[in-house]
Amino acid sequence: MGKYWQILKRYKVGLLISPLLVLITVLCETVQPMFMAEIIDNGVMPRDLSVITRIGTYMVLVSVGGLLVSIVNTFLPASESASVQIYEEHFSIKYNNYPFSISTNSVQLRLSQGLLAIYPAYNRSF
């Protein structure tokens, strides 16, 4: 465990901020039904257009805020992982006996493309 912590302590800012950003994104998504209930109860039923407009504006702002936080959460770990190559530094396999070489970026790209190909099939299974 100590060896892993030595590797991960370079990423402590990302390790602390990323779960917080995910939590904010989830909160932005989960308050939307509450806003809809508020619009229906206090805006549609009494036919008050000002309540519908006000709460609808809140919904749009919360959605845009959640989108921005999600974008930051996407680029923050990507920028940290691009700055230091963990795989080459600690987990690399020497390919001296093979006539080809595989770079870390190539492995990361192939793994992410494979996961993107698997995800739609996994999503349809439910």
Average of pLDDT = 78
Largest sheet: none
Global morphology: elongated
Number of strands: 0
How far is it from the N-terminal to the C-terminal residue, by CA? 36 Å
| Percent in helix | over 70%
Count the DSSP helices: 6
Secondary structure blueprint with pairings:
Elements lengths: L1 H7 L3 H19 L1 H13 L4 H35 L2 H5 L13 H21 L2
Helix pairs in contact: 2-4, 3-4
Considering the chains and any ligands shown, give keywords for the structure.
single chain; 126 residues; mainly alpha; 6 helices; 79% helix; elongated
Could you explain how this protein is built, in words?
By secondary structure, this protein is mainly alpha-helical. Helices cover 79% and strands 0% of the residues. It has six helices and no strands. It has helices at 2-8, 12-30, 32-44, 49-83, 86-90, 104-124. Helix 2 packs antiparallel against helix 4 (49-83) and helix 3 (32-44) runs antiparallel to helix 4 (49-83).
In short:
The protein is mainly α and about 130 residues long. The protein has 6 helices and no strands. Helix 2 runs antiparallel to helix 4.
